[in-house]
Amino acid sequence: MRHTLFIILMTLVTTCFAGGQREEPLSNSVKALMQKSISDLAAPRLLFDNPAEGEIWLNQMSVRLQKRIPDEKYRIDFLKSVHYEATRAGLDPQVVLGLIQVESGFKKYAVSSVGARGYMQVMPFWVRSIGTQEHNLFDMRLNLRYGCTILRHYLDIERGNYYRALGRYNGSLGKPQYPNLVVNTWRKHWDFVFASR
To answer: Can you list the positions of beta strands (E) in the chain?
Structure first.
């Protein structure tokens, strides 16, 4: 039993692409803004102007994610949460799905070799910096909230440059492999345009 558990944990650790986000000092205003974002406890919902478009998006993404998250109820909750957290952070939900695929392979309990946790491979120092000690980075919604808040922070630092922001997110700023992998994964698996547009 212990041997099997060890193999499962090692598989999770080795399949994560997460690098090491670097802990950097935050100004008080940035810290306060990020803390406010993390403390939002609103129930996730699709944020589309047209509810019919929201349902189309949800159905398309659900089909694409079915093999990775077989439980339909959980998969729908996950997708609504991704869409809600990404949209409220001003991010493209499909890019976030690409990032999650690269970072954790959609494994809720993924842990990288440097200690990053969950779907979006959030480093524990963020809990000390902008959260509270009760925050569990394996909680799906909380992990997505942290990850989207952190990516938004990096995107702001990099003045909208997704490649540099993704490099910061992964701790590989200046190296093109990771941003290229996320962008290619997004385009290949998660890109979606409504036919009527």
So the answer is: none
Q: Please give the Cα distance from 68 to 119 (Å, whole number).
A: 12
CB distance 134 to 41 below 8 Å: no
- Whether 171 and 19 have beta carbons less than 8 Å apart is answered as yes
What CATH code is carried by the domain that includes residue 61? 1.10.530
Residue 79 inside a domain? The answer is yes
Distance CA 173, CA 148 (A): 18
Question: Is the predicted pLDDT of residue 196 greater than 70, yes or no?
Answer: no
The DSSP letter of residue 176 is: S
Find out whether 162 and 183 touch, Cβ atoms under 8 Å. yes
Handedness of CA 73, 111, 147, 181 (dihedral sign): negative
Q: In which domain, by residue range, is 13 found?
A: 2-19+30-189
Number of structural domains in the chain: 1
- Amino acid identity of 179? P
pTM of the model: 0.83
pLDDT at site 20: 63
Q: What would the pLDDT profile of 106-117 be if each residue is shown by its tens digit? A: 999 999 999 999
pLDDT confidence of residue 35: 76
